[in-house]
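Notes, p. 3: input format for complexes.
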Amino acid sequence: MAFASTNPATGEKVKDFETMSNEQVEQALALSMKAHHELKSWSLEDRAGAMQRIADILEDEAEELAAIITLEMGKTLKSAIAEVKKCAMGCRFYADNAADMMSDEVVETGGPATTYKTYLPLGPIVVVMPWNYPLWQVYRFVGPALMAGNTGLLKHASNVPQCGLSVEDVVRRAGFPEGALQNVFASVQQVGIMLRDERVRAATLTGSERAGSSVGSICGEVIKPTVLELGGSDAFIVMPSADLDKAVSTAVIARTQNCGQSCIAGKRFIIHTDIYDEFRNKFKTAFEALCVGDPNDPETDIGPLVTENSRVEIIGQVEKALSEGATRLTGAEAIDGPGYFYRPGILENISKSSQTYYEEIFGPVAFLFKVSSMEEAVTLANDSPFGLGSSVFTQDKSQQDYAIKNIEAGATFINSMTASHPALPFGGIKKSGYGRELAAEGLRAFCNIKTVSIV
Ligand code: NAP
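Output follows (455 residues plus NAP):
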């Protein structure tokens, strides 16, 4: 892995970073363990104080940090600023709520013993993260994990090295022990070394199936817990009783925000036949009105895709779908000129026999499907290897209940788009991974839930 910042809006490489030596990996492991021992001895109040200081720094420096995000992965500056502020909000949430989530819970067993559950940290955790929300993905680990007393060895995506370094810097300046969160420029092989090291107690990975399977296999071999947050191809269902204009405007954001590079983006739009034509026309008009361009321009809705490789992959998926019978309603093509710009687009008539039908497209391309009932919509929604989020637009209570009970996904949002929030557990089923981040579930995922019995 070569770590480098390349500006996706121009294609220019801005800065290179050296991969670590194995000696540096060893030093990072030793420091992570030392920091864990120190952090474990801190009170929850002290951890909360440092966590609030992280939030203060993020708020004070939101514009500078956002500029690094935009430079390295191309999202609009305004959305990057919103991402940094969300990180601050997440840190404050854990500063305020971790003590409750970690407080001992008495369990009556009917015998003479006093029995309770207590939550203890595990230790150093390997944290493998993707580039698409390069700060939020990391801070949603930092908040719960450091509050619990764990430490992190962050192997960030190779195209966002300065984002990774910024997290290490902010955590240190906030006053956490030296090494509580270290950015490591580690190769895949060095990630394996860390996962197998006895000082590392767990791993969390957000990314592709390929990377998740690799990290999960190693941790399986050496018996370490993992949380895997992988891809998604979320269904976005719209039924006749929905507020159609709201459904359309939400659908456009759900598919195109972050240049369509979100695991929980609505990707398959499943529309009831009675409103299909109206939805389709409004959706098309809204897609065509989106402004694609310089991510630093406040008028821009959509910046470039993250890399040329990513653009080539999306072009290939769209061409394959078209060659297998899909039709192009609008867009879905590369834009000539410097940078990795791509016009958001909509495809219809994607055949069930087409390979693309089952794939995630990690860019602003929507698939449109027509169905004649909620049952048919849910069957189509479930006809996917993934099971991350889902959105359903309907005012009909029985249809809402049916969707909540029957869609195979880690989340179902009724009359809004799927979104993460620090108070809500986040994660998927099927090929979207396992385990949960955020909320008490996310914090406890990396705790030793110790049973205590005292007679
Ligand atoms: P990716 O290639 O899997 O990269 C993610 C991270 O894994 C990067 O740090 C990458 O390092 C590392 N990695 C890759 N192969 C590895 C291996 N064999 N062992 C250890 N680490 C490895 O993912 P991506 O394609 O950049 O990211 C997009 C994917 O992430 C999409 O599928 C998206 O849906 C998913 N995602 C899921 C969530 C969620 O919460 N469920 C959130 C965001 C994104 P390098 O960069 O150095 O290759």
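The longest helix spans residues 77-101.
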